[in-house]
Amino acid sequence: MTFSFGFDAFLLLMATMATGAFAGFVAGLLGVGGGIVIVPVLYHLLEFVPMDPALRMHVAVGTSLATLIPTSIRSVGSHRKRGAVDDGLLHAWRIPLALGVLAGGALAGIVSRQALVGVFATVALVVSLHMAFGREGWRIGERLPDGLAGRAMAGVIGLLSTLMGIGGGTLGVPLLTLFGYPIHRAVGTGAGLGLIIGIPGTILFAAGGLGAGPALPAWSIGYVNLVGFLAIVPMTIWLAPYGVKAAHALSRAMLRRAFALFLGVTAIKLYADLLGFSVTGG
Q: Which region holds residue 147: left if phi is over 0, alpha if psi is between -120 and 50, else beta?
């Protein structure tokens, strides 16, 4: 890990502050977790920071997971005051969700940058299509499945969210609403999923990159960049209320289309990035 603060670290600080500002505004505007914004933006900004290009996605994901911890704590507290957190579901899902996180962390340590980018781009595209063409009244069932099926869903959410560096809201909220959850309760519970994902996910990404040394950006502990973490979190918290204010000037349908467009463009850009590299290259 590198702790000298020179021009490279200053450049990273400026880039991550911009990332946090954008993520906070979009998160407030669209009601999503910041990770779905932080990861692709930080991934592209890291192209201008001296580091091993093969590790750009790993650092973007690891840093995003770290930002989940304080933002999820703040979010869960706010939602719990309104009675919008299903603590029973969080209790039932905590172990399979954590196992999914462990599996995701293990995979992230051995897969290439292209694999991580591919996972993010594919899931972002699926969510984009759901937001663009899905209907709020759509239902798979009236209640979540019990037993193995329900725990398997939690495991998959933990696995994919860890590989993508996102909280539980991006995948959990649409899933919960498809099984009859009111949207506010789904959002509050999704914030709780993010906290369960963020803590072990951050530890795994920090430990997994300890051997990378000078291949990482300045001020990194493994794949978690401290400059990024310290810059993104306050900017996200500061700008989110402004996004919320802007959201009230737009209809819900317009917000869904805006989010779908953002994710769709993000997915296409990431796929284009993948096509610029060989299958086996770093």
A: left
